[in-house]
């Protein structure tokens, strides 16, 4: 071992605390009783054995899981921080956690049908919390919503998480977004649109789609409205049954396939007993977007 460290502290000798700490680290490294590690993106020096007590250094040790397969979770939490929820997801998680499961299940169903698509439009994306599920199977998603509060959050979250998606403020009942898409999704939007504005919704959606594109619309079933929450009923001004949803979609699309959903389960059962409805649409009718 090299030269020993004097017993008096740096403070006793008039050395600033930070400078004294660095001095002790230099001596410890020279004596080969210290190693350098990186934890959560920061550099720490770990002293072996009793040397930490000898020099009075408080050194942070690595946080380790008792089961090694979970260590990546601990490391990523330290490196990236916790995932933040937006306004809608946060409220839902606090007020009715099961409903968040139902919402994400709807996105999972859509992601399965759209697997392999390059560029997908999401109309009425809200805070973009469910968009990440679509990104597991499609290359890029562009989300639109008429409320800047939700779009601002979605943009910040996507940038922080480095997601391959984009967002813009746009009212689909007034204007179609620029560009053409391989597919489009609109979940829990049409029931919020005034009936008089609904035709523009369908036409503007069709204007954004390529010839062989697919469109998926999801909405609560009017037959289940009695079981909706108070705040849901306040915004649901245009609920549909299976028949009225299909009739509206057939004005724009040649083919419309209906699916039912109860809680997180999608099925082809009796529509009047479904809580939620999907219309899977293909084949844009000529002239329907005018």
CATH topology call of the largest domain? Rossmann fold
User: How many helix segments?
Assistant: 10
By CATH, the superfamily of the largest domain comes out as: Vaccinia Virus protein VP39
Strand order in the sheet with the most strands: 5-4-3-6-7-10-8-9
Which regions have little confidence, pLDDT < 50, spanning 5+ residues? 1-12, 37-57
Strand content: 15-25%
Following the backbone from N to C, one meets helices and strands in this order, namely: HEEHHHHEHEHEEHEHHEEE
Number of domains: 2
The description of the largest β-sheet is: 8 strands, mixed
Our measurement of the CA-to-CA distance between the termini, rounded to an integer number of angstroms, reads 86 Å
The amount of helix comes to 25-40%
Number of E-state strands: 10
Structural class call reads alpha/beta
Mean pLDDT: 84
Instruction: Tell me the radius of gyration.
Output: 28 Å
Coarse shape = globular
* CATH architecture name of the largest domain: 3-Layer(aba) Sandwich
CATH level 1 class label of the largest domain: Alpha Beta
Features:
disordered N terminus; Rossmann fold; two-stranded antiparallel sheet; 290 residues
């Amino acid at each position: 071992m090299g030269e020993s460290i004097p017993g008096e502290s740096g403070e006793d000798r008039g050395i600033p605390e930070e400078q004294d700490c660095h001095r002790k680290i230099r001596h410890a490294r020279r004596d080969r009783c210290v190693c350098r590690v990186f934890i959560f993106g920061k550099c720490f020096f770990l002293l072996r054995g009793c040397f930490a007590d000898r020099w009075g250094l408080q050194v942070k040790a690595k946080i380790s899981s008792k089961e090694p397969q979970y260590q990546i979770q601990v490391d990523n939490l330290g490196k990236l921080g916790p995932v933040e929820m937006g306004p809608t997801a946060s409220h839902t998680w606090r007020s009715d956690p099961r409903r968040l499961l139902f919402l994400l299940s709807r996105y999972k169903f859509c992601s399965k049908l759209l697997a392999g698509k390059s560029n997908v439009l999401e109309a009425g994306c809200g805070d973009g919390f469910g968009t990440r599920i679509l990104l597991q199977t499609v290359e890029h998603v562009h989300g639109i919503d008429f409320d800047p509060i939700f779009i601002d959050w979605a943009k910040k979250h996507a940038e922080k998480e480095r997601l391959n998606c984009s967002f813009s403020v746009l009212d689909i009942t007034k204007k179609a977004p620029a560009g053409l898409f391989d597919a489009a999704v609109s979940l829990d939007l049409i029931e919020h649109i005034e009936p008089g504005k609904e035709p523009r919704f369908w036409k503007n959606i069709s204007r954004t789609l390529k010839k062989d594109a697919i469109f998926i619309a999801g909405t609560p079933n009017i037959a289940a409205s009695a079981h909706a929450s108070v705040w849901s009923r306040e915004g649901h001004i245009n609920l549909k049954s299976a028949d009225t949803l299909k009739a509206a979609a057939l004005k724009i699309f040649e083919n419309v396939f209906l699916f039912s959903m109860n809680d997180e389960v999608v099925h082809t059962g009796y529509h009047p007993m479904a809580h939620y409805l999907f219309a899977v649409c293909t084949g844009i009718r000529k002239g329907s977007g005018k």
